[in-house]
Amino acid sequence: MPHRVVVIDDERGLADALSIRLNAAGVAAQPAYGGTAGLAAVRAVHPDAIVLDMRMPDMDGVALWRAIAGHDASLAARMLFVTGDTLSPGASSFLAEQRGLVLDKPFTAKDLRERVDEPRGRTDPAAAGS
After folding, report:
1. φ, ψ at 71 (rounded to 5°)
2. Which of 29, 39, 101, 102 is the most buried (most CB within 10 A)?
3. What's this model's pTM, rounded to 2 decimal places?
């Protein structure tokens, strides 16, 4: 399991709850509230993985992925996308390219623990989309 994870969601309660669950599993998880704050946290923390919501008002998951991929392609390959809504065709296509690194809401703490470890094994960020 990754040692450091940034959890990015514009819903404070959800970001906090996911971070608490990961911390209980032995991961140093830090919440960030929204895409802009998430990008700043990623740059400050240098996490092993990122859990992020796809739909945020200030910067959505695709835009955040692109911003991170532009500076650190290997980290962009270690993102777990969380979604609970019907997405636009563009976002749906993007997620399909991410090789299943999507966690659909609602999910359990066990689902989160199991899936947060998966991004670490990805070694070809170029194949994840651009």
Report:
1. -115, -25
2. 29
3. 0.83
Give the angle subtended at the CA of 79 by the CAs of 18 and 56, to the nearest 5°: 65
33: helix, coil or strand?
coil
Residue labelled with tokens 């509230």: 33
Q: What angle do CA 39, 45, 47 make, to 5 degrees?
A: 90
Q: Between residues 19 and 74, which one has the greater pLDDT?
A: 19
User: Residues with Cβ < 8 Å from 65, sequence gap 6 or more?
Assistant: 52, 76, 79, 94
Q: How far apart are CA 122 and CA 9, in angstroms?
A: 23
- Residue-wise pLDDT tens digits, 68-93: 989 898 888 889 988 876 566 767 77
Report the C-alpha gap between 89 and 81 in whole angstroms.
Answer: 16
3-state SS of 60-112 is CHHHHHHHHHCCCHHHHCCEEEEECCCCCHHHHHHHHHCCCCEEECCCCHHHH
Q: Are 61 and 52 in contact (CB under 8 A)?
A: yes
Q: How many CA atoms lie within 13 A of 61 on its CB side?
A: 28
